[in-house]
Amino acid sequence: MPVNLLLSISQVTTTIGYGSPNKANSYSVHGSALGAKEVDATRKNLGWPHEPFHVPDDVKKHWSRHIPEGAALEAEWNAKFADYEKKYKDDAITYTPESPADATRNQSQQNLNALAKVLPGLLGGSADLASSNMTLLKTFGDFQKDTPEERNIRFGVREHGMGAICNGIALHSPGLIPYCATFFVFTDYMRGAIRLSALSEAGVIYVMTHDSIGLGEDGPTHQPIEHLASFRAMPNILMLRPADGNETAGSYKVAVLNRKRPSILALSRQKLPNLPGTSIEGVEKGGYTIQTTHQIAAKAAEDLRKEGKAVRVVSFVSWELFDEQSDAYKESVLPASVTARVSIEAGTTFGWEKIVGSKGKAVGIDHFGASAPAAKIYKEFGITKEAVIAAAKELL
User: Where is the Transketolase-like pyrimidine-binding domain positioned along the sequence (predicted)?
Assistant: First the structure.
């Protein structure tokens, strides 16, 4: 039986360099400055009589409704927030080792919905993956023309456009905090928008799930190997990779409070145990010492201690935040005298020499992944307790 398919295309025509009488709609306006003469001609052509960098009084009056006196408002907000934390301390999301193991994408959803209750400007959504990214605000509907009070945005499968929209929201008003989500590997489609977030000092929160080879059967096309390193290399951006619930909550606190730089949260699909010793305060330092008994690194440390080795486990949630700490703090976490250092991460080892030093070793994956259950992939590619122990013994 024949099927009729109807295709509708919307065409939007724009003019590059609009307003420039001599260079509009030409390649020369793309990569070069207009020049003083053409700037003057453009100003006259657009009927703009004001001197450069002048903001007319009517424009100031309009925006004063949206941007009250900044310093006073910020001080008032900080005081109210501190008072709220004292009064409602029990409302904070915390996790203990007795809490069920869970994927950090699920813990992310718990945090988003808790934040939505106290942050009226928090809004966002996913690139048609809300059910996988776990980014739905459950007590709100969809933001539409007729429902502007709702806060779930259906961006559709358009990652670059999604990032661009969030940049606009973040820069429009200091009262709005946008977040957007997709699989971590698909940041490739929106890298330009994320870079503009960093350049523009737009505090967008990028919720990126399915952060490693641990997503399993979707295979190497969906498994981000090099993405952590690439964003750690990008200026003015916070790359956060929490290991459990407390670190996920800490990552959201950092992301919400950083209004002048974007944050990327790399979150797991697979379940992770909630570790003893992790904390929100530790996340704010970027890296901190923990005592754990569950994760790969901690299990390796436990076995090495049984052999009489002195071992400490450090959780590195954010390299950028750790770099900003005092020299004394960094020395307390990574003593210069200890050169036997081993890193472990489900991702490329590129960049870890900065942490482990020239005498250290990095355990990771420097090639594409494969399609298989998470546990099998980790074993096949050597991201295991045994690999960490072997690397440590080579250094001792």
Answer: 102-274
Sign of CA dihedral 199, 201, 205, 211: positive
Q: In the prediction, which pLDDT does 11 show?
A: 76
- Spatial contact of 353 and 362, defined as CB atoms under 8 Å apart: yes
- What does R_g of the chain's alpha carbons equal in angstroms? 24
Given 38, 51, 150, 159, which residue is catalytic?
159
Instruction: Record the tokens describing residue 365, joined without a space.
Output: 């994956």
Residue among 188, 186, 220 at smallest CA distance from 381 = 220
Residues in the chain where the model's pLDDT stays below 70? 1-8, 31, 63-74, 77, 85, 87-92, 291-295
How far CA 212 is from CA of 58, 318, 355, 364, in Å, comes to 51, 16, 20, 11
Measured CA to CA, the distance from residue 135 to residue 125 in angstroms comes to: 6
Residue 72: its pLDDT value, please?
A: 67
How far, in Å, CA of 181 to CA of 133, rounded?
Answer: 6
Per-residue tokens: 294? 């569950």
- The length of the chain is 396
Q: H or E segment at 257?
A: helix 245-257
Q: Can you tell me which residue has the tokens 């036997």?
A: 340
Smallest Cα–Cα separation from 180: which of 157, 201, 193, 162?
162
Contacts of 284 (CB under 8 A, 6+ apart): 250, 253, 254, 321
Q: pLDDT at position 83, please?
A: 77
Positive or negative, the CA dihedral 41, 46, 52, 53 is: negative
Q: At what angle do helices 296-306 and 385-395 cross, to 10 degrees?
A: 50
Residue 69 among the catalytic residues: no
Straight-line distance from the first to the last Cα atom of the chain, in angstroms, rounded to the nearest whole number: 73
Q: How far is CA 266 from the centre of its chain?
A: 6
CA distance 122 to 244: 23
Give the span between the Cα atoms of 396 and 389, in whole angstroms: 10
Torsion angle defined by CA atoms of residues 226, 231, 232 and 236, in that order, rounded to the nearest 10 degrees: 170
**Do the beta carbons of residue 318 and residue 274 sit within 8 Å?**
no
Q: Cα separation of 38 and 33, whole Å?
A: 9
Enter the DSSP assignment of 102.
Answer: B
- The whole-angstrom separation of Cα 291 and Cα 302 is 10
Distance between CA atoms of residues 29 and 22, nearest Å: 9
